[in-house]
Amino acid sequence: MDGEDCEMAAESLELTYISKFEDKSTRAGCFFSPGFSNGVFFNGHPEAPTMDDHIEYSTICRLETSEPTLLPTEESQCDMVCMDDLDRLEKRVDANAADLGYLTEDVPTVLANTFTTVNDLEKMVEDLKAEVERLSKMVTDHHERFSCLAGMDKEDDKED
Prior knowledge:
By secondary structure, the chain is of the alpha+beta class. The chain folds into two domains: 3-78, no CATH class; 90-154. Helix content is 54%, strand content 13%. The chain has helices at residues 3-12, 80-149, 154-159, and strands at 17-21, 29-33, 39-43, 58-59, 61-62, 68-69. Strands 1-3-2-4 form a four-stranded mixed β-sheet. Strand 5 (61-62) and strand 6 (68-69) form a beta hairpin. The protein is rod-shaped, with a radius of gyration of 37 Å.
C-alpha cells in the first residue's frame, strides 16, 4: 500500500485517516491506532521495520479482492506484517492465560491460607486476654491473702 491506498482503506473501513508520515523507528505501512488517536496512519519510511512492539496497533492489509480489512481472514493472503501481528497476539493470549491460571489456582489458596492465619491469630489474642485476666485475678487474690497475713486490713491498704 501507499498513503493513498491507506486513506481509501480507512474510509472503506469507516475509520478516520490521520496522516502519512516517515519514521524509521515505527512500523511501516498502513495501521490503525485506537490508543493514540483512534485513527489510521501510513508510515512510508523505506527503512521502517515491518513490525514493532505496539500491540495496540492493527495492521490494515489488502485482500486479493482489493478490499481492506483490519484483521486477516481465512480467505485472505496477508503479507508477513499481518502474520507477525497474529503471532504477537497469540503470544500475548498465552501470557494472559498463564496470568489467569495464577489468579484462578494460586490466589484462592493464598487467600485461604491468609484467612486461616488471621483466624489463628485472633484465637491466640483471645487466649492471651483470658490468661492476662486469670493472672490479674491471681495477683489480686495473692495481694488480699498477704495483706491479711501481714496484719493489714483493707482500710490500711487503702491508705498506702
